[in-house]
Amino acid sequence: MTETDIIDLPNFLPYRLAVATDAVSGRLARRYREEFDLSIPEWRVMAVLGRYPEISAGEVAARSAMDKVQVSRAVAQLLRNGHLDRRSDAQDRRRTVLNLSSTGRAIYGRIVPMARAYEQDLFDRLTPEEGAILLSALARLSAP
After folding, report:
1. pLDDT score recorded for residue 50
2. How many domains does the chain have?
3. Is residue 20 assigned to a domain?
4. Which of the ends of the chain has fewer CB neighbours closer than 10 A, N or C?
5. Distance between alpha carbon 96 and the CA centroid of its chain, in Å?
6. What's the mean pLDDT when you consider all of the chain?
């Protein structure tokens, strides 16, 4: 086997990105679970609906980069827990739209400052230039 047949995992970019994502998301996921009994997919659904109310589950999936099954499971759990409301769209009765319930809005209102503080803590570990480069690089890597 030659060097080109082996992946140097610690220096393999997809692996490094996955490890970084797991580390960053894992810390936040623990807080969501402990303080609000929410999974990451549930929080993502709530975050999308907090920003874009009155959209369908399919639109949540498109805006959250989650697959429809993940969104469907998260929506079902959030509905069971009273964090979401679902109703027929006034323009198209075949389409259902989702919104945060009053309980969901209250939780969202508590999580947003916590999430922003966590994001700021991450950026505080970088220089302003590194933060700008990171955001630019992530945008380029995630572009189609």
Report:
1. 97
2. 1
3. no
4. C
5. 22
6. 93
